[in-house]
Amino acid sequence: MMSAREFNFDGLVGPSHNYAGLSFGNVASFSNVKSASNPREAALQGLAKMRELAARGFAQAVMPPQARPNFRLLRRIGFTGTDADVLARAYREAPVILACAYSASPMWTANAATVSPSADTFDGRAHFTAANLNNKLHRSEEHLQSTRTLRALFADERHFAVHEALPPTSAFGDEGAANHTRFSATHGGKGVEFFTYGRVEFDPSAPAPKKYPARQTLEASQAIARLHGLDSARTVFASQNPDVIDQGVFHNDVIAVGNGNVLFYHEQAFHDEGAVLNALRNALANVETDLSAIRVATQVVPVGDAVSSYLFNSQLLTKPDGTMALVIPQECQENRAVARYLEELVASGGPVDELIHFDLRQSMRNGGGPACLRLRVALTEAESAAMHQGVIMSDALYDTLVAWVGKYYRDHLEPKDLADPQLALECSAALEDLSRILGLPGLYDLT
Ligand SMILES: NCCC[C@H](NC(=O)CCC(=O)O)C(=O)O
């Protein structure tokens, strides 16, 4: 077994971060619609998390933002003329679509792709499939740049395979790693891959939410397991509980997180809790590992509190001594039930013995917590040496990126600002400079 480390690739928040209420079913996105955002603060909050986790010895990297506004989208739907003409007319006639074209949503890199480490795949390479995110217009073209970015970072085909997104239709609705968790005794050993879905396209009798959309289908999860060449004895598919999707759990990572042999979850997370635990235990037996389930009861933390605090949208990180830290948003400490629960959790003598909290308010107001902001990529030593090195977080890169943010980012953005042609110029200048900083000259197609 090769030794491996888990890298967390955090999304660097782009300069057009704003609150446009684009995600029906995501409570925070809906309740903060049209409030003013602070892109500079958002980027700095994300960078502070990256630096702190890197300083604590966790493998940390940065995933660059995407070019905004998405002129390709705007032109394809009939806005013509100069860039300034396109923006002015889109603002007048279709301000919500303009906001879609400007969304900084690629910051939530848990939705960029599904990743299977090389220990799990048929050909011994690490496999990535960009998520089509086709449930929401503003996210539906992210996969084009995500594929391009992943191919730039993981270019060596001896080690990596980057698949294009699944066909962009609702039957294959795919939200990436937000509905995927990997369990294993160590990051380098064979693991169990756990896929959760909200509905089944071709089985109308399967559970499905009534009020809010289910973004992930079973068909999509199965396609990814096939593409990555996973062993069916070590792959588990599970239905989310549709009732909690209807309470704002738009991704499974809002109500469960896994790491190592630990599943930290709310009792209402799954349609059939007992069956899920059994399936995971059986699959883990194939890699001689026992599941350690940390179950949170509704009586202790109601679903509404889990959604508003983002308790489960935490990062569960294995420390060098084998114990785990839980990386939480500060909202968890502001919620009485959650704060009390967390105190007991770390005192319980279980696997989680430390809390690390961050102020991620800017992202949280759009429904993105610590776990949404990162894509986990477990890499062997040879693989981490083969990936692009310019994105690995260090004090020097942190300082450079803080200065870069200071140079290009605004500290106030509201809906009317999206009509300002100057904002588009600022965004493209920022990204051009960023691709130089990260040593990725061809990263963007800025023509
Ligand atoms: N994993 C967290 C994803 C959050 C994301 N929010 C958004 O896109 C909100 C954008 C807005 O409303 O401006 C989503 O719902 O997919």
Automatic annotation (TrEMBL):
Belongs to the succinylarginine dihydrolase family. Its EC number is 3.5.3.23. This is N-succinylarginine dihydrolase. Keywords: Arginine metabolism, Hydrolase. Homodimer. Substrate binds at residues 20-29, 111, 138-139, 215, 253, 366. InterPro entries: AstB_sf, SuccinylArg_d-Hdrlase_AstB. Pathway: Amino-acid degradation; L-arginine degradation via AST pathway; L-glutamate and succinate from L-arginine: step 2/5. SUPFAM superfamilies: Pentein. Catalyzes the hydrolysis of N(2)-succinylarginine into N(2)-succinylornithine, ammonia and CO(2). One of its GO terms (molecular function) is N-succinylarginine dihydrolase activity. The active site is at E175, H251, C372 (nucleophile). Pfam families: AstB. It catalyses: N(2)-succinyl-L-arginine + 2 H2O + 2 H(+) = N(2)-succinyl-L-ornithine + 2 NH4(+) + CO2.
